[in-house]
Amino acid sequence: MTVSISMSVAFYNDIQQHLFPRADRREQGGFMFCRFDKYRREFQVIEWRPLAGSDYAFQERDYLELSDKTKASLIKSAHDLQVSLIEIHSHPRQIKVAFSIADWIGFKEFVPHIRWRLGKRPYAALVFGHSCVDGFAWIDESKLPVSIDGINIGNSFVKTTGNSFKALERGIYGQI
Ligand SMILES: [Zn+2]
User: From ligand 1's centre to the CA of 125, what distance in Å?
Assistant: First the structure.
């Protein structure tokens, strides 16, 4: 069973612009607020929030960490709206994107916490390269994510690289 995401062309363009600014080569991030259609297994993006410098505890060329205040504010917004969250960030220098080992370590800590806080709603993460994307979704009780198949953007479908799930299966991220 595949999992996909749908969003408007306008959201997609705004997100691309935010994730790849001309004069800043650090990683950038944001969050999308979504309804999850459990029959289609599709996250439908209804809103998104770019993250700015003050939202981060650390923002480097290859590492992002949110401040506790930002995490609390995102959880509160998602809770109030009764929606799922998708975290997004960029890997500006990667050709065929996949999550890093640091990303995976972050998921192991953050995903169970945020899902517990949001009533076990599905959660997902996307990593964007300049012209590619990859993602994981946590839908059921399993700690193991599933690969996101792709993103429906208006009338087009952007398929993920699938590289993160291959890395997971090969044990590259270490213990699950
Ligand atoms: Zn990353």
Answer: 10
